[in-house]
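[Discussion] Sanity-checking designs against the backbone

I'm trying to build intuition for which residues belong where. Below is a structure token string of 282 positions. I'd appreciate it if someone posts a full sequence so I can compare it with mine line by line.
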């Protein structure tokens, strides 16, 4: 991925947090002349994400570090597969280690979980998408990781399209009024999506000519009845209560999208490690 100014700033914040006062241990043990080589190794099967960010971390700590990627974002790696080779000043290599691994492990964890969901839904024609339940400041990175795993992105910010949820409806007084006001104010290219929790709300969303109807926290049986009522008049999104174990129960004919917040908020970091050895002086 391209390193955006926001991502570059996030890397700076992470390095300042971890090494803003220096690396007392490494600086005490090694001189400026000591050199080492390191290799990042996958300690489990995983889907890789964040190789460019890890590279950027090492180069920010010391441009004299030589960094060679041995795999690419989106690659499916086996336990023991090599990811990244680094060589150069020992202190710089060790100072950058934790920050680089934090980015790689977290983003690869999301990509690995997304790949698991994508494989489970293969052949159904349903898209699995993420949500805005992301780590503050990390949204662009986490949504990129979702794509690396083979899933799709929902909106990345409140400004991308209209999504009228239960609190909008409650504050507006009715679903119909919320849709009418949104349609009058939104740009002509913006789709109108409406959250529906009950059959009555599905009917109201249809009367309001919503472009997308989000069936929220419904059982598979309720979703089937809602799909029959919608009958192709709107894109159907399913959300709420969908777990990996029940994913196929919700991937029903007529469902276009299933949104899963767990892709970003519940992904477990994968196991990657940096193995270091000295470069012997001749």
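Best answer:
Here's mine. Compare freely.
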């Amino acid at each position: 991925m391209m390193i955006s100014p926001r991502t570059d700033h996030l890397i700076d914040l992470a390095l300042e947090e971890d090494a803003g006062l220096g690396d007392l241990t490494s600086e005490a043990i090694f001189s400026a002349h000591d050199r080492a080589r390191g290799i990042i190794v996958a300690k489990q099967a995983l889907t890789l994400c964040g190789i460019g960010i890890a590279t950027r971390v090492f180069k920010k700590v010391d441009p004299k570090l030589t960094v060679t990627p041995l795999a690419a974002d989106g690659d499916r790696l086996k336990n023991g597969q090599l990811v990244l080779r680094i060589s150069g000043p020992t202190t710089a290599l060790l100072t950058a280690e934790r920050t680089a691994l934090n980015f790689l492990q977290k983003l690869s964890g999301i990509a690995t979980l997304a790949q698991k969901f994508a494989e489970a839904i293969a052949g159904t024609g349903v898209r699995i998408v993420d949500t805005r339940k992301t780590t503050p400041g990390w949204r662009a990175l986490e949504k990129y990781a979702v794509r690396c795993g083979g899933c799709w992105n929902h909106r990345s910010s409140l400004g991308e399209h209209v999504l009228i949820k239960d609190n909008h409806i409650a504050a507006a007084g009715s679903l119909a009024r919320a849709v009418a006001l949104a349609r009058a104010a939104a740009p002509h290219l913006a789709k109108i999506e409406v959250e529906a929790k009950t059959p009555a709300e599905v009917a109201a969303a249809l009367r309001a000519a919503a472009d997308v109807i989000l069936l929220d926290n419904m059982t598979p049986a309720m979703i089937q009845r809602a799909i029959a009522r919608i009958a192709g008049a709107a894109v159907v999104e399913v959300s709420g209560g969908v777990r990996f174990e029940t994913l196929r129960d919700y991937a029903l004919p007529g469902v276009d999208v299933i949104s899963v917040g767990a892709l970003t908020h519940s992904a477990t970091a994968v196991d990657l490690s940096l193995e270091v050895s000295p470069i012997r002086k001749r």
